[in-house]
Design brief:
The protein is mainly β. Helix content is 7%, strand content 49%. Strand 5 and strand 6 (75-82) form a beta hairpin. The termini are far apart.
């Protein structure tokens, strides 16, 4: 069997990044992440190509989007942030927009799904070759709510 290759733009995951000197649109930067899925009879690999701002590793970013807690409860520390609630990956559609897992430094009180929230944190590439997840926002803090 021939290897099966799929190359896609990873609409996988954040609006203002603050690398050292200049602001960058984080959602746009995330849309530039490329994924190449390689499937053979015996192997599976996801190759990820990051834009220059992320190719050297983690960067500090500010981002605003629509938040959905990953788990129920009175306090939230792990959530998904989406650029557009109309393209929600948690709504059962395979045709969804960019989304980002956010891990908060400190838990915050639960909120209504789809609340628009801004965060600042460390955007960290996920280099695991067996997952399509490309980045996580770690050590995040709410800056507006």
């Amino acid at each position: 069997m021939k290897p099966h290759h799929i190359t896609l733009s990873a609409a996988a995951l954040t609006p203002f990044a603050l690398p050292a000197a200049a602001e960058t649109d984080a959602w746009h930067m995330l849309s530039q992440i490329k994924i190449n899925e390689i499937v053979t009879e015996t192997t599976y690999e996801v190759q990820k190509t990051y834009p220059n701002a992320l190719s050297e590793g983690a960067i500090e970013v500010e981002i605003t989007g629509y938040a959905v807690p990953r788990l129920p409860g009175d306090m939230v520390q792990d959530l998904i942030l989406m650029s557009d609630m109309g393209n929600c990956p948690l709504c059962g559609s395979f045709d969804h927009g960019t989304n980002l897992q956010v891990l908060l430094t400190k838990a915050i009180p639960a909120f209504e799904e789809g609340t628009r929230v801004s965060f600042v944190g460390t955007l960290t590439p996920v280099t695991d070759p067996e997952t399509w997840q490309t980045v996580i926002l770690k050590d995040a803090r709410v800056i507006t709510r």
